Amino acid sequence: MSIITDTTDKSGRYVKNSAKVRSAGVDPTKSKDFKGISTYNPTDLEKKCRNEFLTDFRNGWQTMHLPRPEFNDLSLYQRHITGHVGVQHLPGK
After folding, report:
1. Would you call 40 exposed, middle or buried from its count of C-beta atoms within 10 A (0-12, 13-18, 19+)?
2. How far apart are CA 62 and CA 19, in angstroms?
3. CA-CA distance, 17 to 68, in Å (whole number)?
4. N or C end of the chain: smaller count of CB under 10 Å?
């Protein structure tokens, strides 16, 4: 299971700004393993740190997977793979 959920268009490309960070909360009405509320109560600083981490993770994920015009509408990840495929076919490699 991923902490990021995203949507794609009909051609299978990711849609800009559609990535959402999943919540860590547990719904006691839907979970069979729910034993009760945790006694852990994070401080405001811990909550802020967690939110900043998840926001940075989301932004990094989108940077890697969204098509970019400077790469001829390939994502950074797809362009990286394309670059490796091209290098493997050079003479002497």
Report:
1. exposed
2. 7
3. 13
4. N
